[in-house]
Amino acid sequence: MEELLSHEDHAHKHDVPMGWTSSDIPLSEVARHNKPHDCWIAICGEVYDLTDFLQHHQEQRNSILAWAGRDATPMFDKIPGRFPSKQWMEYYMRPEFKTGKVGPEKPVDSIIMELRELHDELRRLEGPSKEEIEAVKTAVKVPGKTDAPTLSEESRFPKLAEISAGKDLPFFSRAEVAKHNTAEEPYMIIHNRVYNLKPLLGSHPGGDDILMSKAGTDCTKDFEVFEHSEKARVQRDRDMLVGLLSILAGSVGPRGLFGLFQSAP
Ligand code: HEM
User: Fold this and answer.
1) Which of 228, 235, 241 should be mutated for ligand 1, with most atoms under 8 A from CB?
2) In the chain, what are the domains?
3) pLDDT at residue 18, rounded to an integer
């Protein structure tokens, strides 16, 4: 047990986590490396450790961190010049950043899983580490580019409040939204609201593929990474808003008791 915890304490770049070989990293493990000082990204079956890269390419910081701990394959090469594109990777990302290949999820001993969860929880309770504080301090702001938004969407775009005011909307759980992942009813969560993107298919400037690859999921991060304009947000709330997200796991909409537990839009 001590060995496991001490290994995890020092888990950082180039470490291959216990229980996996470097050519066999499940996405659940990639998901744990989602911080500026410990940043892995999966793309097209390969896992990249971009921790060092981040330190030296501060101007790409926001677009890289948006994918930290995630599989960026659905977006690969969709927009040349935007991370992650082939052009971008050939130019900036060298083979030495490859940490391994994406592998299948393997049954892991339940005690190890429990210890991992406890350890992650402890790290969250401890708050930011020295490295995390340092990584944030060294961030460079790029003129003309927005920093990762910290204000609520409505504070940044006050016009939005008028659009949804007075609408009587049903509540959806994440599980319910996940079921709406077809081209007939492509639902998405953006900023704790639920949208049916059907009217956008065929006319979305970013293309339908991107939308469909995200149908049924929470796309808040993706929506912000592409710095959608106020016009896009107004169109979204005016034509596609179908509900609000209930924060109760497994809760069933519409309305009823769960409305009480609605998360702040
Ligand atoms: C209701 C939701 C959405 C609406 C109304 C919408 C609308 C738009 C509009 C109007 C643009 C043109 C640029 C602008 O005015 O901002 C755009 C661009 C784009 N959108 Fe969306 N979008 C939505 C959701 C998404 C999502 C969830 C993704 C990603 C998963 C996405 C990816 C993109 C991309 C990649 C571009 C092109 C950006 C670029 O060229 O830099 N959009 N969208």
Assistant:
1) 228
2) 2-137 (3.10.120.10), 153-261 (3.10.120.10)
3) 47
